[in-house]
Amino acid sequence: MIQIQNFVFNPFMENTYVLYDETKEAIVVDPGCYEQAEKDELTDFIESNELKVVKLINTHCHIDHVFGNAFVKKKYGVSLTIHKEDEATLKSVEVYAPAYGFQNFENTEAEVFFDEGDQVEFGNSVLDVFFTPGHAPGHVVLVNQVQKICIGGDVLFDGSIGRTDLPGGDFDTLIKSIHDKVFTLNDDTVVYPGHGGTTTVGKEKVSNPFCALSK
Q1: In a 10 Å sphere around its CB, with 0-12 CB exposed, 13-18 middle and 19+ buried, how is residue 124 labelled?
Q2: How far apart are alpha carbons 160 and 208 in whole angstroms?
Q3: Strands (DSSP E) along the chain, which ranges?
Q4: Residue pair 181/147 in contact by the 8 Å Cβ criterion
Q5: What is the fold, at CATH topology level, of the domain defined by 3-207?
Q6: Interval 172-212: pLDDT, tens
Q7: Which of these, 75, 90, 131, 211, could form a disulfide with 61 (CB 3.0-4.6 Å)?
């Protein structure tokens, strides 16, 4: 049974997730920890629960989701996995980070790349990888259809969607990703987004002003 712990980090109020199960193996998704206190909060939870971090994953590579990549890699000796189409997005962060005031950003490269149809395995748990571009060119969401959970990054929010005005973003592509991928999940699937609170697929199908399905 997958357990999910959420942390809200950095000035962008980004959701960092630690997923783990009864084996104590864990994955870190989108580590947004920048300040030392945020890094301590993350590691304190992992250590207090005696978790073993076995994977580091980015749903996509915008600055607010990758602040802690280098830290997590070094701390736990894990590789970074992203979609190949977001490699340029990741590499660009070190160029623009100082302009946002993040002078101490530490860049790191991805070692592993996944694609549509791949699976992320840890402990007794499996997450399916869905390729969902539009907000970022290499965006993915991670889904466990048995437990009906979706780690959604910045694709779909409670009453909103990810912005599409950043490099590599495209509104029509994002809506297609939502309709063709996320909205194929069961209505009671819980979406854990990159910002804000959780929502469900069914709720957004009916009421989301940007992507609700017409009746």
Answers
A1: exposed
A2: 6
A3: 3-9, 14-20, 25-29, 52-57, 80-83, 112-114, 119-122, 125-131, 140-144, 149-153, 156-157, 160-161, 190-193, 199-200
A4: no
A5: Metallo-beta-lactamase; Chain A (3.60.15)
A6: 999 999 999 999 999 999 999 999 999 999 999 999 999 99
A7: 90
Spell out the domain ranges in the chain: 3-207
Residue 214: pLDDT over 90: no
Amino acid at 67: F
Which of left, alpha, beta for 159 (phi over 0: left; psi -120 to 50: alpha)? Answer: left
Query: Three-state secondary structure along 144-174?
Result: ECCCCEEEEECCEECCEECCCCCCCCCHHHH
**Residue 87: exposed, middle, or buried by beta-carbon count in 10 A (0-12, 13-18, 19+)?**
middle
Both structure tokens of 187: 């209505």
CA atoms within 13 A on the CB side of 10: 22
In this prediction, residue 215 carries a pLDDT of 55
**CA distances, 87 to each of 13, 90, 112, 117, 152 (Å):** 23, 5, 11, 19, 19
